[in-house]
Specification:
By secondary structure, this protein is of the alpha+beta class. The protein has a single domain (2-123), classed as 3-Layer(aba) Sandwich (Trna Endonuclease, Chain: A, domain 1), CATH 3.40.1350.10. It is built from 2 helices and 5 strands; from the N terminus they run αβββαββ. The protein has helices at residues 2-30, 79-95, and strands spanning 34-42, 45-53, 56-65, 103-112, 117-123. It has a 5-stranded mixed sheet with strand order 1-2-3-4-5. β1 and β2 (45-53) form a beta hairpin. The longest helix has 29 residues, at 2-30. It is globular. This is UPF0102 protein B4V02_15435. Belongs to the UPF0102 family. GO terms for molecular function: nucleic acid binding.
Length: 127
């Protein structure tokens, strides 16, 4: 029974993360970004969103929170997470033969409620 509880919590958290990423993608599309990939994975990690803004390839970390009980979304991005995102982006660039494109790392904070997911902050060149 304890395992079912944990699995249910993980499924709920994943569903909320998906809701946050969907809101982030729509937010970026409204700003004219072209979403290239969602949840791109390799051995080193996962990239939430990869988008193009004009000539710049943008790797976006999406952080969703339903409360500030455990800190703000921005505070949840640790040095270890930044390193992982950068390494994973490097793998993406290598695997796709992209060597000279300008790149950037953004972070989007998303506030979750039972009814909606709303982007509250867009940190351009976050790390």
């Amino acid at each position: 029974m304890g395992n079912e509880m944990r699995t249910g919590g993980k499924d709920r958290r994943k569903a909320k993360g998906t809701m946050g990423e969907q809101a982030a993608a729509l937010f970026l599309e409204e700003l004219g970004y072209q979403i290239i990939a969602r949840n791109w994975r390799c051995r080193s990690g996962e990239l939430d969103l990869i988008a193009k803004q004009e000539d710049t390839l943008v790797f976006i970390e999406v952080r969703s929170r339903s409360s500030s009980k455990y800190g703000t979304p921005a505070e949840s991005v640790t040095a270890r997470k930044i390193t992982q995102v950068r390494q994973t982006a490097s793998v993406y660039l290598h695997m796709n033969g992209i060597g000279d494109a300008p790149i950037r790392f953004d972070m989007l904070a998303v506030r979750l409620t039972d009814e909606a997911a709303v982007v509250t902050d867009h940190f351009i060149n976050a790390f």
